[in-house]
Amino acid sequence: MVNEHKLEVRKFTSMADGTDAVLHIHEIVGGAGDGPTVGISGAIHGDENTGPQIIRALWPILTQTPFKGRIKLLPVANPRAFAANNRFTPVDQLNLNRQFPGDPHGCYTDQLAAAIAGEFLEKIDIHFDLHSGTDRPTVDYVYIMNAENLSRAFGSRVLYRPKENVGGTTFSGTTKSVTVDKRGIPAVVVELGGGILDQAPYVRRGVDGVINMLKAARVFDGDPAPPPPQIVVRGIEGVRPKQGGWLETEAPALGEEIAGEAVLGRVVSPFTFETLEVIRNPVEKGIMILSHLSRNLVEPGDYGYMVGDLAEAET
Ligand SMILES: [Zn+2]
After folding, report:
1. Ligand 1: distance of its center to the CA of 199 in Å?
2. Within 13 Å of residue 87, how many CA atoms lie on the same side as its CB?
3. Which of 11, 141, 149, 201 is spaced 20 to 30 A from 314 at the CA atom?
4. Model pTM?
5. What is the pLDDT of residue 315?
6. In terms of domains, do 114 and 36 share one?
7. In CATH, what number is assigned to the domain containing residue 117?
8. What domain range includes position 142?
9. Which residues are within 5 Å of ligand 1 (an ion), measured at CB?
């Protein structure tokens, strides 16, 4: 069976090069009775392209498996940033995930955020937002926002319950009438994949994780697979290299623990071959959340490592 589906292409402004700025939103009707409308988005940050790949891989499953309710897919939330492989929107250098609810009379990214709020966020009852590393670092954790059972059902080993939420995100940004947060719609932010690596294993995990969350939400039939032993961290320490050069990692794998002053990696000059900087684990007892899994070129201040602090972690 093939589920009923349609693609909405919504114009929200015109660009200086004469093209239309549009959102591509797919809507799939599950055909197995009433249920919530689930929204799945990717590439809110344009250089995080594992999410769009996961959504692409979900497409044949979601269109061919009967389920309850509807699923809306926004595979590329920030198309101009995505095409340029940029975290921020090239037109105005703004971070889309700090501009919600947006402003239809504002600059380009404000208009984009307003269009996403009106056409997507306000029309869904559950939100899965897929983030990743870029083409340099790789990341592996899931945020617990307001739907711990769904976050856990994704199946990652490490979860993060932030002590406070930053403003202007898809979760916290106020939309026309309400915030997604205040509206109380269950929301999960996934961080998975990235790096100069084959993304296929991360795409497979992403597909399995989303299907498992859909089962936990009773949108898909069947019981969700039980997650592996999980750790919930309350604090994440980011470590950015102060020097630019080759970043050569010595850290344990993502999801592995790291203690004391252990070396995370070294920045080595591509020109003189000398070690410019030794980067060390910043917490007494940590767990690897973001890392460089191949020898990557970094600029000073780029994303280096993220280590979850196990001092106040929950199991
Ligand atoms: Zn992101």
Report:
1. 16
2. 11
3. 201
4. 0.96
5. 77
6. yes
7. 3.40.630.10
8. 4-216
9. 45, 48, 131
